[in-house]
Amino acid sequence: MIPGADDAITRDGKALILAYDHGLEHGPVDFEPVPQTTDPSTVFDVGTHDAVTAIAVQKGVAEAYYPSYEDDVTLLAKLNGTSNLWMGEPDSAVNWSVDYAAELGADAIGFTFYGGSNHEVEMAEEFRRAQEQAREHDMGVVMWSYPRGQGLKDDTSPDTIAYASRLGLELGADIAKVKYPGSADAMNWAVQSAGDMKVVMSGGSKTSDEAFLSTVREAMDAGASGLAVGRNVFQRENPEAILDGLEAVIFDDASVEEALGATAGLEASD
Ligand SMILES: O=P(O)(O)OC[C@H]1O[C@](O)(COP(=O)(O)O)[C@@H](O)[C@@H]1O
């Protein structure tokens, strides 16, 4: 971690990264709830919301769509990724070089690291190359730190998520993106385990407005530095409303009630 290396993808030290690499990781099934999101332009439009500090996409989407948005969004180059068609031990192909990401205008790289996979050693070596090249270009480094593999029984237990965030610090990330470990105490343990490195929560599958904002509020109270989110934003008919709510919670320290109350279009659960 280098202090300040993530400045381009944070605001006031906080991040709201809009992840849109699902077409590779999960396939078009993730676009079915809001079919317009199959078109990357729709999600780049969402990414122009003030709350969004960076948009994370794969190479092909960056090449084709980022040039039309370069004045309006900050590009985070998701360097590696694997399709859901892959049935082997967790692994992730490096799909573009850091040099090429920099040439396209990226301010940061994102890299999935599956600690605990049988491919952990190769992935750590790939991360090392990418991290050092990112330093040459003054780019921030975000690790999608997702321990998983046949030896791991519970990939969201408090100890596993604390280990995930620590791996980010140990290997040289500026921000580690981790799955929510289920409680504020466990999230706090993950944040403490990362020292001065920032930890952001991963969005997960779509939940209600109130449930999602409550989890984000808990994560922030536990010391998280924000969120990297995909489906919980782009699978909503009104993604701007949830981004207004997230902006209130993450950047303005609003309560869930304040965020729901102040933001037209958001709903408390029944
Ligand atoms: O490996 P998983 O758990 O299926 O999720 C991978 C996906 O989750 C993310 O890390 C976060 O997206 P979500 O907020 O939709 O969960 C994406 O960047 C990625 O495509």
From TrEMBL:
Transmembrane segments: none
Record CDD domains: DhnA
SUPFAM superfamilies: Aldolase
Record-listed E.C. numbers: 4.1.2.13
Active site as annotated: Y146 (proton donor), K177 (schiff-base intermediate with dihydroxyacetone-p)
Recorded GO MF terms: fructose-bisphosphate aldolase activity
InterPro entries registered for this protein in UniProt: Aldolase_TIM (IPR013785), DeoC/FbaB/LacD_aldolase (IPR002915), DeoC/FbaB_aldolase (IPR050456), FbaB-like (IPR041720)
Family to which this protein belongs: Belongs to the DeoC/FbaB aldolase family.
PANTHER family: 3-HYDROXY-5-PHOSPHONOOXYPENTANE-2,4-DIONE THIOLASE (PTHR47916:SF1), FRUCTOSE-BISPHOSPHATE ALDOLASE CLASS 1 (PTHR47916)
Protein name: fructose-bisphosphate aldolase
Organism per entry: Haloplanus aerogenes
